[in-house]
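Running low. Got one?
___
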Amino acid sequence: MPQFKITILNKGESINDTYEIQFFIGEGAFGEVYRVKHKYLGVQVLKVFKEDYVSKTDLQTVTNEARILSKLTHPNVVRVFETNSFVKDNKKYFYITMGFVSGETLTQLLARKIKLPLSLALSIQNDLLRGLKYVQEQKRPIVHRDINTDNILLSYEKDMPSALISDFGLAQSIDQLSNLPGAAGRYMYFAPECFLGTYLPVSDIFSTGIVFYKMITGMHPWEYDFDSLSDDVEKIKTHVISARKKEVRKPSYYNSECDLYLDDVILKALSKDIENRYPSASAFLKALDKGNTKMKSYYQY
């Protein structure tokens, strides 16, 4: 017989007399995800944080970050509305609410397609970098800390899918990620300095470079084998760092649509040396848009 997951919330329940639970969407790294109807503002997404996440995270920092994000609006960034808490069965739960995106994650798209046509990959990458550029150019630049294909949502409301970045600020420290599901998968996107506990805007550039490489080639820049490592976080970190000693193959090795210029752009984003990487999303965008006739032809959909 099929096993049904017991969720914290059920359809029809009301949270703080504001949110009505419509249905359970799924379970992410940070908690359970629900589609809800706000009393006044319509459909949103509500994420109830897992106990592990709450115990290892500075919720005040997350709340402060959410307040900043709630004031920002950009077509390529999932809107944050609020962080708050509720009590159920004498137990306190913390949650965050965000804009609802009708579509899928980039992870789900790549699971079906393996790799994407270059025109679509470029379109998604440009959306991703535009969203990052916006948050990086705020008075207090915001670092995502956990960019990967799970946190890139695709909306299909237009002819060309549009990409939105989700879950800003939820990954507060590398230690906090250690015992959460999918930690190994996320370590594959971490910049080298993140393994030392340093998170910078340029760290997000490294992660976006990996996303771009995967969209174009269907593979990660470096090969990993986590099967024998179980859930030993220290072994996983060591394995990732060790695997990255190998030189990255140019994307054009796997995808003939890629030209030499684009090879150079992507490899620069993947530089393990901060000084050699693009310093910002703006610089990465400019490199993609540089007056290269062949590349610009790929933008014709």
Q: What stands out?
A: Strands lie at 14-15, 19-27, 31-38, 42-49, 80-88, 91-99, 103-105, 152-155, 162-165.
